[in-house]
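Protocol step 6 of 9: fold each sequence in the batch and record its structure tokens directly after the sequence line. For illustration, a two-sequence batch is reproduced in full.

Sequence one:
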Amino acid sequence: MSISRIGKTIEEHIDDLLHAIEGVSSRATQLESKTRHLEHTMDDLKGTVEFMYAETEGTMRHLEKILGEVHAGIQFLKDKQGIAEAQMLLQRLQLSKSKASKLAGL
């Protein structure tokens, strides 16, 4: 085998190796780009989740406030109904007492 043939064979192998290295480099660049895109997507998702959590928490606080107001309104109505029932009972008792007094006076 001659030196020129050995040099040519080595040159072919070096070209094949450089071509393979370029392919690996290209794939590494694509992977880096996709990884960067995934990182940005995850950051966006994290921001969205945090925003939605804060919004949901605010809505829950608002609903708790409304529920407290409804509970206070129901208690007010119950108290008012109790007072009205007591007033009706008092009127009946007074009417009954009045009738009893009239009957005793006859």
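Sequence two, same batch, same settings:
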Amino acid sequence: MSFSPCPSGPLGCSSIQEQRDRWERKRGRTAKELVQTEQRYCQQLELVTTYFVEILKAKATLRQDIRESIFSSIKAIHSVNQSLLVHLENGYYGRGFDQFCPQLHHYNTYVDNIYNASKVLGIQLKKNKAFRRFKKLQEARAEFNNHKLEDLLHLPIQRIDQYKHFLQDLAANTSPDNPEFQQLSRAVTAVCEVSQRIQNNTRHHENHLQLCRVQKLLKGRKTKVLAAGRWYIREGWLKIVPPKGAEAKPKMFFLFSDMLLQAKRCSPLHPTNGDKFTGQHAYPLQDCTMEKVFGHTKSQGGLLSLTFPKAKLLLMSNNQEEFNDWYQSLSSAIRKLQSKQTVVHQRDELCRRPLRSAADSHNTPSSSSSSNNPSRKRNMVNSEPRENPHTPAVDWESSAPKRMKPSVASGQSSSEVSTSSCVIL
């Protein structure tokens, strides 16, 4: 039996060598494109730092806090990427990214601030005439090649996604025996974490925009949609079926991760609120149960029954596809919310459970000894969970020693420590 890395015969060795040559060619093309795009990226970062950050700081056109809100850590990013470019141009890809990845915290800072930067930039362009004129003059320079500042500020976000693809291709076409393989693999993991951070921030930002949009659709300020941890899911028209057989009335429903909001359209004749809705009921999904009354087959629509602690809804839709979407969305929202509550409840039960060591269980005093020592009995009673929350807590340090004589207290110090060590979390 042969343990040769290639099959016997010239054909086997030549096919493996051809595969290695293909990998090397792919790696060379990826490396070349990486260097070229990195050169262009550093040039564009230099435009921002030179013609905006430095000049604005010298001219004091913007306050320091406003400059930091708009440009964040872009200057530090430019410095880090210049060092990376030197390694890439010399062919040290693994070493370059190995030194680049510990500096990714500058990208994290920039990623977390990008939406705030866009907001502050928009405000300054509206209110600050001097800055608006300055921005227009700088963007008219030939070096900018018709690029706007807004586009240049998003380059670090786009570059992270490009790094992820470049590094994955380089690692895939690098032999595991190559010393750069481990360095490139670590770089892939580090860059993917920043990429995931960007995606999470994007999802949170888009959800916030949806919540703000729904809030503006509602008349007045009575119904509060903006809340921490709330996610927008969907909206649409559904008919409410009255329990006594009256005519079904269409209502607008907004589904969130924790509640179902029912609303009706304002009068179209209203001068300011003709295109808005009035919030009628907010049904919490915490203890909601849902079932299909009909709509199990491919018929025209269906009927859903939603039961809440203090209300019950029968919702109907004539559109089968829309009915199925509502059923799936409601089921998923209820299931996720109730699963979270189950986890929290179990964690609270573990926190309330008293922790008693084996030594405490063996040293539990008998009923006769506890009756002879009232102060120690009071400490033991108060160490158990109290059902009445209004019962005042006993101060062990001030109450017990008052009833003890100095000689008795010194003799019973060890037993008091054992009884007082039972802590309820």
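Proceed to step 7 once all outputs are recorded. Observation for sequence two: The radius of gyration is 34 Å.
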